[in-house]
Amino acid sequence: MINFYQCRNLDETKEFYLKLGLTISRIEPQCIIFDSGYGEIGFLETVSYSPLPYSCISFVKETKGEVDKLHQDFLDFAISSPKQHEKYPVYSFFMKDPNHLTVEFQVFTQ
Length: 110
What we know:
- It is a single chain.
- By secondary structure, this protein is of the alpha/beta class.
- The chain has two domains: 1-47, Roll (2,3-Dihydroxybiphenyl 1,2-Dioxygenase, domain 1); 55-110, Roll (2,3-Dihydroxybiphenyl 1,2-Dioxygenase, domain 1), CATH 3.10.180.10.
- The protein contains two helices and eight strands.
- The longest helix has 10 residues, at 10-19.
- It is globular, with a radius of gyration of 14 Å.
């Protein structure tokens, strides 16, 4: 499975997702595809980029410690702090990538 998203700047997007630990699966003109280990995410650079009203790319981690470390590593992008959700058995935080897409790191707590 590959989910594709538009992006404003392929180089910034590449740098961001490589720093998250994803690997490059394929590079094409104005396109990059990353392998997350559980599926792939593709980004297409476009001059007519407009952010989606809402979309969330969620990465599932194994421990709260991993979520906390990612939060510390990406404080400049974070839009929330890690916390246990009231409605769901999930501990997570959210951030915005360079394209203003919402990215979540979570761990299931039950």
